[in-house]
Design the sequence.
């Protein structure tokens, strides 16, 4: 074979990149805003919420002794797979993180992640802790156990998992997964993001994720994230398709990640089978994972460019605070409404409306203003750090 693979021809890659960026290093595409991704994020959040509200068997007390399966059998069967919305979140995250930090310095990447994650998260902790501790009678049985000041303070760092502390709300486990992805990707950002480096990152991470379970090294497994990595890696490769155009190498990364994701389904599902109390169909799970890949891939390839509904921007903004507060607060609210004589459907609809409004209030009154203040302060800190780093070291006498 004398011809080099398509992606090993730098001149061809530069010509394609230049054609899409107008000769500059920044993306200069006439393609519209990816509103579809905002819609997908909301869909994923609602899917996870449906799982927690109508499929999780551990909330029989919340439902006044009636299981969700008895009250809403059809919804219960569908919601049993709602947890797969988390996997869709991870694919979207791989795409969006790569897109949002392209061309940014490490300090800018750090600031962007802090201001995006922490303000709404702190509000979620404050609200969830207050509701659970002040309405113990309506909260899930055991929700207040061990929820003391030390636990709350530990949760504020978002590092409660490595600190060995319980979560204020169980859904926060995914934030530790996201944090590890950011730490890994920060290594690439620190060296300067380029097409070649990001492709190499995808390949190296895939190798370590495959080998980690066999190595028997806990730290390696923790950072390699064998179960979650295929989703992030696929999302990153899909962004490269969006920015530089699809090609065989990127298709290979996405396809290989999809296969790995399917092979990991059995190990992922065990946790959910335990909280559901009944088996799950591998075929249904595989179809849902495939759909998650296809949705984000479709956004990358322009299949959903026709989606220009501006209200999806608001929907996307609500997704994160909604995800943070829907579980323990939602369960407590549902229990309270049921004890006040509302039927199951009415209680669920009222709870949904309440958490959506609360998520909007968190976004408008906490997340947006606090993010602005935090960003300005951190930007000044980064500027001082860069200035101090540029100063020559004092000479010794």
Sequence:
């Amino acid at each position: 074979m004398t011809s080099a693979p398509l992606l090993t021809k730098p001149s061809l890659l530069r010509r394609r990149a230049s054609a899409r960026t107008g000769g500059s290093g920044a993306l200069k595409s006439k393609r519209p805003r990816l509103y579809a991704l905002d819609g997908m994020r909301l869909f994923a959040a609602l899917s996870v919420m449906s799982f927690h509200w109508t499929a999780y068997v551990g909330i029989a007390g919340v439902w006044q002794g009636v299981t969700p399966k008895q009250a809403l059998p059809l919804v219960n069967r569908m919601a049993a797979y709602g947890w797969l919305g988390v996997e869709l979140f991870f694919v979207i995250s791989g795409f969006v993180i790569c897109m949002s930090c392209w061309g940014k310095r490490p300090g800018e990447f750090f600031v962007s992640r802090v201001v995006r994650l922490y303000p709404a998260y702190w509000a979620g902790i404050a609200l969830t802790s207050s509701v659970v501790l002040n309405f113990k009678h309506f909260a899930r049985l055991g929700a207040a156990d061990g929820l003391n000041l030390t636990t709350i303070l530990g949760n504020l760092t978002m590092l409660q998992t490595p600190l060995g502390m319980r979560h204020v709300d169980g859904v926060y486990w995914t934030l530790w997964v996201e944090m590890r992805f950011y730490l890994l990707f920060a290594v690439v950002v620190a060296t300067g993001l380029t097409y070649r480096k990001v492709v190499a990152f995808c390949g190296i991470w895939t190798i370590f994720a495959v080998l980690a379970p066999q190595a028997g090294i806990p730290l390696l497994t923790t950072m390699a994230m064998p179960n979650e990595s295929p989703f992030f890696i696929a999302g990153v490769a899909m962004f490269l398709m969006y920015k530089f155009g699809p090609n065989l190498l990127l298709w290979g990364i996405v396809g290989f990640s999809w296969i790995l994701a399917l092979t990991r389904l059995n190990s992922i599902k065990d946790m959910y089978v335990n909280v559901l109390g009944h088996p799950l169909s591998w075929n249904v799970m595989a179809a849902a994972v495939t759909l998650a890949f296809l949705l984000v891939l479709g956004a990358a390839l322009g299949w959903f460019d026709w989606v220009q509904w501006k209200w999806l921007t608001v929907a996307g903004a609500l997704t994160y605070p909604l995800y943070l507060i829907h579980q323990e607060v939602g369960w407590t609210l549902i229990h309270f409404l049921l004890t006040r004589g509302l039927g199951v459907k009415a209680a669920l609809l009222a709870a949904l409306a309440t958490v959506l409004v609360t998520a909007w209030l968190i976004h408008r009154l906490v997340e947006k203003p606090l993010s602005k203040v935090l960003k300005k302060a951190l930007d000044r800190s980064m500027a001082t750090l860069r200035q101090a780093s540029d100063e020559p070291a004092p000479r010794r006498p």
Remarks:
- Residues 1-29 have pLDDT under 50 and may be disordered.
